[in-house]
Design brief:
Elements: H1 4-15, E1 18-20, H2 23-30, E2 32-38, E3 49-54, H3 60-70, H4 77-86, E4 95-101, E5 105-110, E6 113-118, H5 120-126, E7 138-144, E8 147-155, H6 162-171, E9 176-180, H7 185-195, E10 199-201, H8 206-218, E11 225-230, H9 236-241, E12 244-248, H10 254-259, E13 262-264, H11 271-286
Parallel strand pairs: 2-9, 2-11, 9-10, 11-12, 12-13
Antiparallel strand pairs: 1-13, 3-8, 4-5, 5-6, 6-7, 7-8
Helix pairs in contact: 1-11, 2-11, 3-4, 6-11
The structure holds adenosine-5'-diphosphate and magnesium ion.
């Protein structure tokens, strides 16, 4: 039988906006020593603004239009942001043959012409020569009809509590914080330095994130636990692989929420240390 105080713990956590799917997760949480974070949508807002457009072969507004149309079927934060930058209703009849390549970008036909929008890896994959971008930001290279058409630089902002969340976790006994991201190294390094994250791995594909978590699981202190926090569809396998999977509940994908053991109802990373404290308190009552 489940000790009564576990119910109190789960109830207390839920009052704090942390949904715990079972009492065993509460116990695991109390032993967390390594906290692994996804970046976009977890530590940052996942709401990108356009910072600049470079080497465009057409009017900037036209390039944004192609990007927004090609991205129209994607639920990635990048796609949502490009559609907001376009600002007009998407005419879906202009778009066909959509392919989303996770961790790379999208390819679709717009007005019957092939449009690719994504990172260096996507361009390499298509064999398209691109002009490297030196700005700190997430780079969306565009290729239209197999020819390079310029790039859009977008950037995201850190969540207001992220820095405090990392500090609070250390105070709650978490020994190491790690950030995993598919985004560019320059962006990742800057966010990690700003937030005081101990280790950062960038330009990862979704499968690389699972591999990194497996490596990190081998380094954890005896009897301790590793937790992963993420928000995206791509994060579901990592959420399952970690000892504890924590998902963002408000802006997170259904797949992430489903795969997680714990859900943060308001997407606030500061709630993780709060949940750890609640779990410790409730375990002290049990044992
Ligand atoms: P994160 O680890 O930050 O959650 P993802 O794995 O979702 O990132 O994506 C990694 C990178 O792949 C992005 O930074 C971007 O360069 C590229 N990418 C992914 N999806 C898209 C998309 N829909 N449009 C353009 N680029 C994308
Ligand atoms: Mg993400």
């Amino acid at each position: 039988s489940i000790p009564l105080s576990f119910f109190a713990g789960i109830g207390g956590a839920s009052k704090a906006g942390v949904l715990v799917k079972g009492s065993n997760y509460l116990e695991n949480l109390s032993k967390t020593k390594i906290l692994v974070f996804d970046k976009t949508g977890t530590l940052t807002k996942g709401v990108f603004e356009v910072n600049g457009i470079h080497h465009s072969e057409m009017e900037n507004a036209k390039l944004i239009e192609y990007a927004a149309l090609a991205e129209s079927a994607s639920s990635h934060p990048i796609s949502k942001s490009l559609q907001k930058a376009y600002g007009k209703e998407i005419d879906r009849s202009r778009v066909s043959d959509i392919r989303e390549i996770s961790g790379n970008g999208v390819i679709a036909k717009v007005d019957g012409v092939e449009v690719a929008a994504g990172n260096d890896k996507l361009m390499d994959h298509l064999g398209i020569r691109y002009i490297p971008c030196h700005s700190v930001g997430t780079i969306i290279h565009m290729a239209i009809d197999g020819k390079y058409a310029g790039h859009i630089v977008i950037s995201d902002i850190e969540k207001p509590h992220s820095r405090e969340a990392i500090r609070a976790l250390r105070a709650a006994g978490v020994q190491k914080s790690v950030m995993l991201t598919g985004d560019a190294k320059k962006v990742a390094d800057k966010v990690a330095a700003d937030l005081g994250i101990d280790q950062v791995y960038s330009e990862l594909l979704p499968a690389d994130k699972v591999e990194k978590v497996e490596e990190l699981l081998k380094t954890k202190p005896e009897k301790s636990r590793l937790a992963f926090v993420g928000d995206g569809i791509n994060d579901a396998p990592v959420l399952r692989r970690a000892d504890i999977g924590i998902a963002m509940g408000a802006m997170g994908s259904d797949a992430a929420i489903e795969a997680a053991d714990i859900v943060l109802m308001d997407d606030d990373p500061l709630k993780i240390s709060k949940a750890i404290r609640i779990s410790r308190k409730c375990l002290r009552i049990v044992y």
